[in-house]
Amino acid sequence: MDNKESEIIKDIKALSRKQQRIILKRLLSFAWIFKRQFIIAIGFALVLSVINIIMPRMLQYYMDHYLVHQDTGIQIIVGFAIIYFIGTLIKAAVQFVQNFAFSMGAERTLEKIRSQLFRKLHTLGMDYFDKTPAGSIVSRVTNDTKTLFDFWTLFLTILVALFSMVSAFIAMMSVNTKLAIYTALFVIALYALIWLYRRLSSKIYQRLREYLSQINTKLNESLMGISIIQQFGQQKRMIAEFEHKNNLYFTQRNKMINVNSFLLYPTITLMFTLAEVISLGGFGLESTHTIVAAGVIYAFISYQQNFFNPLSNVMNYMSYFQDGMVAGYRIMKLFDNPITSPKQNEDSTQKIEIGKIEFRHVTFAYVPGEPILRDISFTVEPGQTVALVGHTGSGKSSIINILLRFYEFGQGQILIDDHDIRDYSTQELRDKLGLVIQEPYLFYGNIANNIRMYDDTVSDEQVEQAAQFVDADSFIEKLPGKYHAKVTERGSSFSTGQRQLISFARTIVRNPKVLILDEATANIDPQTEQSITRGLSKMRDDRTTIAIAHRLSTVQDADQILVLSHGRIAERGTHNELLEYGGLYSELYELQSMD
């Protein structure tokens, strides 16, 4: 076991009763929305408990008043059979409505929680996704929410058990008070059993959820990087790591099976058997000095079964209690995560009209106390192009990240059209700031939908015009289906250049005032480089442009070049001015000229 896993296990503690009450209260707040279905289920559970009292009484009466006589007519026998059959049908119908109503309520509750979780994910800041593996997030939204269905079922089972036990105990009291009290004493042993089970299972379940999350993370990592894994022959290592995680999960699962097998159904069965032995022994002693009717014994044993059978179901589902509590805890941790996207004035009607960008003494840090950007100040006039260059880690992408409001900056001010960037709504920023990244992401579907980004307000004509504008139509028109050509996951069937041209069209179809290029010309194949260059040139016309570039030859025509070093602007000027200055930019240019 490595250090990371040791720390995880060390941090895992059994949830306290207070924590469990808080989690349960918050989970029930989701269920309360669909209280109608749950109330129906509870009502029919109560009806079912009454039916379970009546039917054994019917058989007792039949046995003690009719079967003891030889002259019982066939009409009475058939009539009773029909009545009992109708009662059984009614019981089955009641059970169906009870289970259906509760299952619908539980499913709708899970749908609500899953939907709210997905919404929450889209409000979280990029810091959260930087620190949390994708597989772990998927596990929260899928596995943890699915676990809650069995968790809700446990509550129905407990209610049914409560109604059944109370009604069965009352019925047993009406038959034999002393034996009913002896039977009820087993509840004390049951409480001790539940206490012991919770104590043993809590930590095991937390470890199970953590290891399952690690398995999902490893699986997601393997699928996303399968080509790199195969290229570098890392299959054995990845398989070994996955098997290690899987074995850890199996070990904890095995422990849970042992606990469940020992403390759940077998123990309840033993209790019922002991209670049955005591009851039969008690009736046997009574029969030594008085007559005990067979129907009375049957009725009491039936009520005893009704007393213990629901307990068996409860104990079977008790394994889901800790699982559900741990899943609820993990879900609530996600709901309570304070890392949110930077706040904007969403009620603002302010519009970005000309695209002037200004940074005033901006400081930014991903980790508090470790600034990545220090005292950044520059202005981009409307229609100008500013290039950001510098060594890896100098802060180029960080400038883009805070301008696009992926992260909140610290000191300083960012202005757009002389208004604070926070004064614009998020929608206005997304509409007027167009981003083109180095590795464009295409969604499963077709080309048209990837360009319009599933926005039905963007017409087919606008999609085609955008593609023509950036020269993407040159290859789209040759595809089977053209703009309706199928796009596989991540657009893997297209070349890097083709994906980039589609992303250009995706950006330009919204007609942004500000264009942000994050290494947009990197990794372009020679066949489409000319199309890419033409597309970029058209996109930059009459637009404010901020471009990150490693290849300095692509930004020589920029109105201003900012050279970053260790989070500061070390040099600024045009291409020729910086070459004459003979500083860091000149060194970078000479190095690239030698390649």
Task: Describe what you observe in this structure.
The protein folds into 2 domains: 28-335, ABC transporter transmembrane region fold (Up-down Bundle), CATH 1.20.1560; 357-594, Rossmann fold, CATH 3.40.50.300. The protein has helices at residues 3-11, 17-31, 35-67, 74-121, 126-131, 134-175, 177-184, 186-224, 226-231, 235-263, 265-286, 294-335, 396-403, 426-432, 447-452, 460-469, 473-476, 496-508, 526-540, 575-581, 584-594; strands at residues 357-364, 373-380, 385-390, 413-416, 419-420, 433-436, 445-446, 486-487, 514-518, 544-548, 560-565, 568-573. Strand 1 (357-364) and strand 2 form a beta hairpin. The chain has 21 helices and 12 strands. The chain is an alpha/beta fold. 33% of the residues are buried. Strands 6-9-10-3-11-12 form a 6-stranded mixed sheet, sandwiched between helices. Strands 2-1-4-5 form a 4-stranded antiparallel sheet, covered by helices on one side. A two-stranded antiparallel sheet has the order 7-8. The longest helix is centred in the first third of the chain and has 48 residues, at 74-121. The two termini are 47 Å apart.
